Amino acid sequence: MITGQCTSCGLRLAGKGFTTFKCPACGEGSIGRCEQCRDQAVSYKCDKCGFQGP
Ligand SMILES: [Zn+2]
Ligand SMILES: [Zn+2]
């Protein structure tokens, strides 16, 4: 089971509707997004390199 936090809103990620992926800029930071933030294209920020993206 994958667990984590939405990088954008801090919601705990569990179950369905969320995605996690590596930061496209540094490849190290782990980005989590909940369904709502994906839906609204809320920007995220990598906590490793500070990259911000949609
Ligand atoms: Zn979120
Ligand atoms: Zn990064």
Description of the structure:
This protein has one domain. The chain has 1 helix and 6 strands, in the order E-E-E-E-H-E-E. The strands form 3 sheets. The chain has a two-stranded antiparallel ribbon with strand order 1-2. The structure holds zinc ion (ZN) (2 copies).
Key terms for this structure?
single chain; 54 residues; mainly beta; 9% helix; binds zinc ion
Q: Write down the secondary-structure element order.
A: EEEEHEE
- Main sheet: strand order: 1-2
The small molecules bound here are: zinc ion
Tally of alpha and pi helices = 1
- Uncertain parts: none
- How much of the sequence is in beta strands? 25-35%
Mean pLDDT: 89
Largest sheet: 2 strands, antiparallel
Which secondary-structure class do the elements indicate?
mainly beta
Please estimate the helix content.
under 10%
User: Number of folding domains?
Assistant: 1
Distance from first to last alpha carbon: 25 Å
Computed Rg: 10 Å
Beta strand count: 6
The coarse overall form would be: globular
Helices and strands, with pairings:
Layout: E1 4-5, E2 12-13, E3 19-22, E4 30-33, H1 35-39, E5 44-45, E6 52-53
One zinc ion is lined by residues 6, 8-9, 11, 34, 36-37.
Brief overview, please?
With 54 residues, the chain is mainly β. It has one helix and six strands; from the N terminus they run E-E-E-E-H-E-E.
